[in-house]
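Lab notebook page, bench 4
Experiment: in silico fold of construct C2
Operator: M.H.
Input chain length: 105 residues
Purpose: comparison with the prior construct
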Amino acid sequence: MGPATSLRDAQDNRIGKYHAQDNRVENSLERCSTMPTAKTAKKKEVKKSLRVTQKKSSIGFKSDQGATLRALGLGKIGRSVEHVDNDAVRGMIFKVKHLVEVEEI
């Protein structure tokens, strides 16, 4: 009788603890969504984009560079694609910078 009730009590306490955490998270989300901040104002700006054009073939270069070109949506010389300007895309472009031409839009 003793161990079973203490186990059940422990489970009830854990469940109550999780519900209290959920309420705190919901309350903090409500506060964040109703109060405008400087960060949310910056997010509303129009994101810059990049136009990437393939200028050279990936033949003769490492295979991962060809895979990076395919991940960027390129594959033929002269083909262009537009991507949002972020760190991930900039990193891919840096890897194949000798094969592509980049212009900001």
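Observations: The radius of gyration is 26 Å. The longest helix spans residues 2-34.
Next step: discuss at group meeting.
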